[in-house]
């Protein structure tokens, strides 16, 4: 499949424009409700499917199937990010209205890192085809390990990344609205929101190590690999706000994701010198595995409604209005007017509201 330069430029331009629109629409920190998240999720899924239709019509059915297989694999594996984000936000007790800014920058960083990984993977495969055997073995082992540890979850307190961040980066003990840095007493300090962003970025890089080799099992066209990745993860922020209160119901999803990794690992190993499994069959298998895991999860947890993740004892508090006003600007100038007002309430997943104060101190 030959992809002209203008196609790459058009896709990248479209992504930049959509990210700008998303950022403008969420320029003010607010709690994103289920309805808003559902609308944005539908928008991003619509773009992902629409782009696949364009590939199908202009490049042929086989490349169209490869794109959709890659998109489905990446979208399914990316759901695991939602689980991890929920754990990180719960651990730090990040106010819900501040979460979108972190996820926006997290997804932006994910696009950059995944683009680099895809470029490196394409070069390696083109110059050293036998590396596909390593990718295949890695995917199978990762799937088996995920299956064995399906009940294990990330523990931020044991995260080496968080320990290093705390050791080397001076940080405040309070959230200062959406700021990642503040100047206090002439010293620039990071806020806990920056630690959250770093954890989100690092965990996505870890997930990319699994997902990038997985998509190379169904297509080796860099353009399809990148676009399937991009459209799959661009809607992750909206998916998080849509599914965050339903995570407790997806009890078998991790089993499904593990089986998908094992399947694509075997497919990759076989296609090198033994037998090429048609993309149609691969797409059907992945769809069946993910669909069955979701259906089984929803069936065994039927009757359970939305449930916000349990809130842990807050490690960090929220800066008071006086502290927000006292914080000096980073670049030597201050916008006139009253300091940003901290919301008095947070919206829970069921639509109710709960009053919050300054937060809890250690």
Number of helices: 12
* β-strand number: 6
Strand content: under 5%
- Counting structural domains, the number is 1
Output the strand order for the largest sheet. 1-4
Order of helices and strands: HHHHHHEEEHHHHHEHEE
Biggest sheet features: 2 strands, parallel
Low-pLDDT parts are: 333-362
Radius of gyration, rounded? 22 Å
Shape field: globular
Helix content: 55-70%
- N- to C-terminal distance: 57 Å
Integer average pLDDT: 80
Structural class: mainly alpha
Overview of the structural elements:
Its main location: membrane. The structure is a single chain. The protein is mainly α and 362 residues long. The protein has one domain. It is 63% helix and 5% strand. The protein has a two-stranded parallel ribbon. The protein has a two-stranded antiparallel sheet with strand order 2-3. Strand 2 and strand 3 (187-190) form a beta hairpin. It is globular.
Question: Could you give the topology of this structure?
Answer:
Layout: H1 5-25, H2 34-59, H3 61-92, H4 99-127, H5 131-148, H6 160-168, E1 174-175, E2 181-184, E3 187-190, H7 192-215, H8 222-234, H9 236-243, H10 253-273, H11 279-300, E4 317-318, H12 321-326, E5 345-347, E6 353-355
Parallel strand pairs: 1-4
Antiparallel strand pairs: 2-3, 5-6
Supply database-style keywords.
two-stranded parallel sheet, mainly alpha, two-stranded antiparallel ribbon, Transporter, 362 residues, Integral_membrane_TerC_rswitch, transmembrane helix
Short description:
The protein has 362 residues and is mainly α.
